[in-house]
Amino acid sequence: MAAGPAVDMKAIEGVLGNHPRGATDALVHLLQDIQEAVNYLPEEAIRAAADHLEVPLGKVYAVATFYKAFSLKPRGKTIVKVCLGTTCHIRGAPVVVEDFQHGLGIGPGETTSDMKYTLEVVNCVGACALAPVVIAGEKYLADVKPGTILKRLSKGK
Amino acid sequence: MTQILIDNRKFNAEEGETILEVARRNQIDIPTLCHHEALEAVGACRLCTVEITGEDWNGSTKLVSACLYPVEEGLIVQTRSEGVLRLRQTVLDLLMARCPESTVIRDLATQHGQVTEYQQFTDGSKCIMCYLCVRACAKLGCHAISAVNRGTLKEVAPPFHEHAESCVGCGTCATICPTGHIEMVDTAETRTIWKREFEFVTCKVCGEPLITKAYRDYALENRRLPNDYYTVCSACKKSELSGHFARLSL
User: Fold this and answer.
1) A26-51: pLDDT as tens digits
2) Which residue in B145, B149, B165 is closest to A65 by CB distance?
């Protein structure tokens, strides 16, 4: 695996402590907690989780790679989701994706080198009235006009 | 004791047996790929699909996988009805599209006739995602490989796609694979599998490779076996015993 930024083992150990040893059925829950704490699932964390829950490493790796919600690559501080549902699509969402490519040099699934943003594209977030919509972290940005997204991201609205 | 009909012939079956078990015991051919008698059936390949009905079903029928369906009193099974054969062809058409490189799949498809030619995968993989290898590895207690990723990217691989750490080189995955997807290279001294190289223990009589050192250590640790269990190969053990018995009979 490519060497990422230093892994915060203390945070991971803290999360492990919240789950009893050998609690095999807590696997997904534990992985979610780890991801929340360190923003992705580093290899060390997956090994530690397997060890702690006494689940075979292969099984933990299978679960971690199965769910789209888990990322094995380091992700940016803000995860930006551009909706590419039908409504957003016809109202110009593909241009918003291009804005990221031109302005920050990242495509879908990629992260800026300063670890600030990770770009993801999603299919319909159920907010078609706001189209084209971008979700930055927890914040919904509505009616994103071409060329405006990066400015709006830095302002946070 | 239950009685069922398979292809208009009456057979006795035990409670809890599957259609496939009864059929195999009575030499009725039902093709399978993902089934192995030592492992729990999962119904992944769908090749064993048969048509069932019952006397009080008012003529309605159902397609079920024989490896999973437990027999019940009065069950009527057809293994070569029109519906079964058509479905088998469809399953094989899809398998052919998935792994055209596999001779096993190609032979089966030729045998059962191809209906539709779907666009073929070109990645050269022979894996049909039956997970026999993963299930066998888990049953043996190693858990060295698992099914990773999802959708079209799903594949059998060791953790982190690196060399399989907990693998002992027993070779069961490669032997059990119905399509020969898993690569295992044996020389006189070593076995290479899952990006790892294992040294062989050789038979002290004939010198043939017997078992990998890692597997011998694993087996001696986890199973109740005498310490010298893996020193002589089974062929040499047999000839040694047969000589012994020959002397006895004199």
Assistant:
1) 999 999 999 999 989 999 999 999 99
2) B149
Q: Which of A43, A46, A58 sits opposite B144 (nearest CB)?
A: A58
Domain ranges within chain B, ordered by starting residue: 2-112, 165-243
Separation CA B98–CA B155 (nearest Å): 13
Q: What count of other Cβ atoms lies within 10 Å of the Cβ of residue A86? A: 13
CA A80 to chain CA centroid, nearest Å:
8
CATH 3.40.50.880 at B2-112, yes or no: no
Inter-chain residue contact B143 with A57, CB threshold 8 Å = yes
Q: How far apart (Å, rounded) are the C-alpha atoms in residues B212 and A130?
A: 63
Interface touch A62/B148, C-beta < 8 Å: yes
pLDDT at B248 over 90: no
The interface pTM score, or ipTM, of the predicted complex is: 0.84
Buried b (16+ CB within 10 A) or exposed e, A63-78: bbbbeeebbbebbbeb
Contact A63, A31 (CB under 8 A): yes
A residues 64..83 contacting B (CB < 8 A): 65-66, 68
Distances (CA, A) of B65 to B38, B42, B88: 18, 10, 11
> How big is the A-B interface in CB pairs under 8 Å?
37
d(CA B147, CA A8): 28
Alpha-carbon distance A45 to A38, whole Å?
A: 10
Token output for B65: 């996988």
Q: Which two tokens stand for residue B117?
A: 């030619």
CA neighbor of B45 nearest in space, from B37, B35, B54, B36:
B35
pLDDT at B196 over 60: yes
Contact B146 A43 (CB under 8 A): no
Average pLDDT over residues A16-21: 93
Most confident region among B17-31, B100-114, B152-166, B234-248 by mean pLDDT: B17-31
Residue B181's nearest CA partner among B157, B151, B163, B211 is B157
Domains parsed from chain A with CATH numbers: 9-66 (no CATH), 78-155 (3.40.30.10)
pLDDT tens, position by position, B56-114: 999 999 999 999 999 999 999 999 999 999 999 999 999 999 998 899 999 999 988 87
